[in-house]
Design brief:
transferase, Spore Coat Polysaccharide Biosynthesis Protein SpsA, Chain A, 10-stranded mixed β-sheet, 26% strand, Glycosyltransf_2, Nucleotide-diphossugar_trans, Glyco_trans_2-like, 21 helices, 705 residues, Glycosyl transferase
């Protein structure tokens, strides 16, 4: 069965599958090992058809399965190619109804404790809990290890190669891609392997533009001359004197004739499908200016390790580090317009180029390909430019960001951040805008006293207003504390008794506040350092920014909040949960400010004008859970960015005052809020742009399994 990018829809309304346990199996023959498919159940609801994503399990080479209970009222199943891929070719699609007895028996063999819990909850009438535990018990043991992942999801079979070759043969408008390679004294064996990897590309419309930077090893020019004779697509120019990597790359760029240039080091390796994936993306979106991919490393024996699965375009993260790195492909005219690479930035010359390109880039014309298309050699003695100029890279990176700040006329400063990454320290406007801190609370004077003391005595910021929204405190200590703090001219206390509704309480507090900046803050937050509020406010005032979040840690120092990843656990979850205080996170992500899809409402700052424009918190359908995620998604939909910064660090005693979802009423409310998020943001929850689709979503641990 062949289907286009809109995918496949199977009508099942008359098959009686609603509420039944079924297994679904299918295979996508059009993408082989690299297939990414979304399986969705369509249910008719009061607001029209709604889609619920089913978390299919991928086994590699295009094979998928799903096992679970279909939602009541299901009318259709849809299969959609993800990430803008070409149409699906589905084979062996089966839906098999499973008997409960057989499922319980299978689950008991795999996970007896979970199965026993499922049977218990069913016996006491808690069907949703029972179904959830049974579904977890039925999940077979997962694959482990990067080597295993490579075999299943990143290894071309002969049928994959034949499919790609046949597809490319039908293209009549494939772009010419110029691979530019500066060369200086690499080991002949690794240079030979690098050249061989380009010549082995399944996409044939490339040219390899090489600048020999006056190599002193006579084997290098001989090898390059032979390669140019053997393949007319290889063009070589030997420089008269050594000019280092930026000058040599510019010489290679001068040979380029393609509309796009791909940057490659002289000892690295491209997988055979690398340029095919790039060309496919360009054919799909001819206006693209920049394309980049995931990457990994190879050692002296060619073993692959340390994969870097990246997120989509993230200019805030790019200020701190060159997370794009390899493989990066740029429209040649754009590289020429900014003057190519700049001598004097050796070690960070690529980062400098990307920062200068970012001045001109339209985010809609940048595309991340979540496929490993570059193998970066790390063998000692390979003669790489990064080895030779490593100690200069940090200073060059700082200077590249300093020049960006100067070009854009910003009043900010640049300093060395953790682990040597850049840190952009923004300047506050003069005078500093008032920050109105909205704190919903009830009882728990011990917690409220700590957060108020932190705000009023331990925070360095010139204009703070605190609006405490009291949700009907009855404890004498809390009432006494509220009366005491109300005498402070900086504090206002609003009385809002009734059922707990975080959204409603926060909206009321915001309405009573007078500042242009609103900070929604839980009553169980403790201030750790004086400059945290300045950091958040200096980001929040930027016109392109819609919301700002902070780094929240538990009292023992483990991380509670490092930004939110959509789709984790079904709706959303915290990034890097429970990592230690000295853990920098995945490729340094927890020590660098970056764009994220959402931040927690436990500490969320935004301009009042943005808060009002996007409709405030949803007090009707998201009273307690996910209101912050919903608000941030509306902020992003309106065109603003959401920034998480590790440089505003606080301690969070999470949910101590609100309690857990431990009553039937709370559980019913929570399930309704989950349903609201799924209906409202289904596609977004499935595809967080800042979390790679290859990574597991049970928790946002940035791991494969």
């Amino acid at each position: 069965m062949e289907f286009g990018v809109e995918g496949l829809r199977l009508d099942v309304a008359d098959l009686g599958l609603g509420g039944r346990w079924v297994s679904i199996a299918f295979k996508d023959e059009n993408h082989g090992a690299f297939s990414r498919v979304e399986l969705t159940a369509i249910v008719d609801g009061p607001e029209g058809p709604q889609g619920t994503s089913l978390s299919e399990r991928a086994f590699g080479h295009g094979r998928f399965t799903w096992l679970g209970r279909l939602p009541a009222g299901i009318t259709a199943l849809t299969l959609t190619p993800m990430l803008g891929e070409a149409g699906l070719s589905i084979a062996a699609f089966t839906v098999t109804v499973q008997s409960r007895a057989a499922l319980v028996g299978r689950a008991a063999l795999r996970r007896p404790v979970l199965t026993a819990q499922a049977l218990f909850w069913r016996a006491v009438g808690k069907r949703v809990r029972s179904q959830h535990r049974l579904a977890r018990a039925l999940v077979p043991p997962g694959l482990t290890g990067y080597d295993t992942w490579v075999r299943h999801f990143d290894s071309l079979s002969e049928s994959d190669r034949a499919r790609i070759t046949a597809e490319v043969a039908q293209w009549h408008d494939g772009p010419l891609i110029s691979v530019v390679m500066p060369v200086y004294n690499p080991g002949p064996a690794v240079l030979e392997e690098a050249l061989r990897s380009v010549r082995a590309q399944l996409y044939p419309h490339w040219e390899l533009c090489i600048a020999d930077d006056a190599s002193t090893d006579p084997a290098v020019p001989r090898l390059l001359a032979r390669a140019a004779v053997e393949d007319p697509r290889i063009r070589v120019e030997r420089r008269a004197e050594n000019g280092h990597i930026a000058a040599a790359t510019n010489t290679a760029l001068g040979l380029a004739r393609g509309a796009y240039v791909a940057f490659m080091d002289h000892d690295d390796v491209l997988p055979p499908h690398a340029l095919y994936e790039v060309a496919k993306a360009i054919r799909r979106e001819p206006d693209l200016d920049l394309i980049y991919s995931d990457e990994d490393k190879i050692d002296a024996e060619g073993r692959r390790f340390e994969p870097h699965f990246k997120g989509d375009w993230n200019p805030e993260l790019l200020y701190g580090q060159n997370y794009l790195n390899h493989l990066t492909v740029v429209r040649r005219s754009l590289v020429e317009a900014v003057g190519g690479l700049r001598p004097g930035f050796e070690g960070s010359q690529d980062h400098d180029l990307l920062l200068r390109l970012s001045d001109r880039l339209d985010p809609a014309r940048v595309r991340h390909l979540p496929v490993i298309l570059y193998h970066w050699r790390t063998a000692i003695g390979s003669g790489t430019f990064s080895d030779a100029f490593l100690e200069r890279a940090e200073a060059a990176r700082l200077r590249a960001l300093e020049e960006l700040v100067a070009r854009r006329g910003w009043p900010h400063r640049v300093e060395r951040g953790p682990l040597g990454f850049n840190r952009l320290v923004r300047a506050l406007p003069e005078p500093a805008p008032r920050v109105s801190v909205v704190i919903p609370t009830k009882d728990r004077a011990d917690l409220l006293r700590v957060v108020l003391d932190g705000l009023l005595s331990k925070t360095v910021y010139p204009d703070i207003e605190v609006v405490v929204v009291d949700n009907g405190s009855t404890e004498p200590a809390a009432q006494a504390l509220l009366a005491q703090v109300a005498t402070d001219a900086r504090v206002r206390v609003l009385s809002r008794p009734g059922p707990f509704n975080f959204s409603g309480l926060s909206n009321d507090g915001a309405a009573a506040a007078t500042g242009p900046l609103l900070l929604f803050l839980n009553n169980d937050i403790a201030v750790r350092e004086p400059g945290w509020l300045t950091e958040m406010a200096s980001i929040a005032v930027e016109p392109r920014v819609g919301a700002v979040g902070a780094k929240l840690s538990y009292p023992d120092g483990t991380l509670q909040h490092g930004g939110v990843v959509l789709g984790v656990g079904g709706v959303a979850g915290h990034s890097h949960p429970d990592i230690g205080p000295d853990d920098p996170g995945y490729f340094g992500r927890m020590v660098i400010a970056q764009e994220v899809s959402a931040v927690t409402g436990a500490c969320l700052m935004m301009r009042r004008e943005v808060f009002e424009a996007v409709g405030r918190f949803d007090a009707e359908r998201l009273a307690v859970a996910f209101n912050d995620i919903d608000l941030c998604l509306r902020v992003r939909k309106a065109g603003y960015s959401v920034i998480w910064t590790p440089h505003a660090a606080l301690t969070h005693h999470e949910s101590k005052s609100r309690g857990k979802e431990d009553t039937p009423e709370k559980r019913a409310r929570f399930e309704a809020e989950v349903a609201t998020m799924t209906e409202r943001w289904g596609p977004e929850l499935r595809n967080d742009p800042y979390y790679n689709p290859n990574l597991a979503r049970a928790k946002a641990l940035f791991r494969l399994w």
